[in-house]
């Protein structure tokens, strides 16, 4: 707006100067024409025509200058309008840029805070990882120890099973020996009964002397493998060659 006003003032000032110059030219012509000299009328008319031509030329030049000045003023106004639009657009862009910059600054602050939080989280996770690593090492040691204990328990179990099988085999052998001893005991008891009956008949005959004493008490039965069977006893008769019972038991 200030530039438009100054351009309008310049144009008006130029027009005023041109008008004053025209009036000054006319006054000069009039004064020169009325001056007391000895010029002829023809010469005066010729000078007047020349001055008129010059004046008309000056008017044309002034008009052309005025039109040129108006064209310059119009171009200057258009340029000012264009500059004003450009300034307005640049102002809007500047405001938008400032707003974007403010948003970016706020976003940077948020990102910085997020980075701090993430760093704290990373440190916490690192500590957790270290703790888990140590716990994992302890667990692995515990697993190795349990694996060793399991292996030892497995070996002990196998040993117990082997001992159990051996014990069962010995038990079956002892039962077989017990049955054999019981069979022998029954056979000896039957032979003893027969011997007692035969001896009674011999002792009750004519010329018989006193009855011999009974045989001594039999010792407990000992198995062939050298182990005493608990709760199992048998009678094993030992007869000497001098015993009168020897002839009552065949095969002794």
From TrEMBL:
Span list, region Disordered: 200-221
Alphabetic keyword roster: Coiled coil, Membrane, Transmembrane, Transmembrane helix
Domain of life: Eukaryota
Coiled-coil blocks: 122-156
The protein, known as: Uncharacterized protein
Organism this protein belongs to: Knipowitschia caucasica (Caucasian dwarf goby)
Compositional bias per record (Pro residues), positions renumbered to this chain: 209-221
Membrane-crossing residue ranges in chain numbering: 12-35
């Amino acid at each position: 707006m200030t530039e438009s006003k100054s351009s309008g003032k310049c144009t008006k000032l130029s027009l005023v100067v041109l008008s004053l110059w025209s009036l000054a030219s006319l006054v000069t012509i009039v004064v020169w024409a009325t001056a007391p000299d000895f010029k002829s009328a023809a010469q005066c008319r010729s000078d007047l025509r020349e001055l008129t031509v010059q004046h008309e030329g000056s008017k044309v030049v002034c008009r052309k200058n005025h039109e040129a000045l108006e064209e310059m003023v119009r171009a200057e106004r258009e340029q000012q309008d264009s500059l004003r639009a450009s300034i307005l657009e640049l102002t809007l862009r500047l405001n938008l840029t400032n707003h974007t910059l403010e948003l970016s600054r706020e976003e940077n602050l948020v990102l910085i805070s997020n980075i701090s939080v993430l760093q704290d989280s990373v440190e916490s996770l690192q500590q957790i990882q270290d703790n888990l690593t140590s716990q994992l090492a302890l667990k692995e040691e515990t697993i190795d120890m349990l694996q060793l204990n399991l292996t030892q328990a497995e070996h002990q179990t196998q040993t117990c099973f082997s001992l159990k099988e051996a014990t069962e085999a010995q038990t079956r052998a002892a039962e077989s020996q017990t049955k054999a001893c019981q069979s022998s005991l029954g056979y000896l008891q039957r032979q003893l009964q027969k011997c007692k009956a035969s001896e009674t008949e011999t002792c009750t005959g004519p010329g018989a002397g006193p009855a011999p004493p009974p045989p001594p008490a039999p010792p407990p039965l000992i198995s062939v493998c050298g182990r005493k069977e608990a709760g199992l006893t048998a009678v094993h008769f030992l007869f000497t060659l001098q015993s009168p019972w020897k002839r009552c038991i065949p095969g002794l």
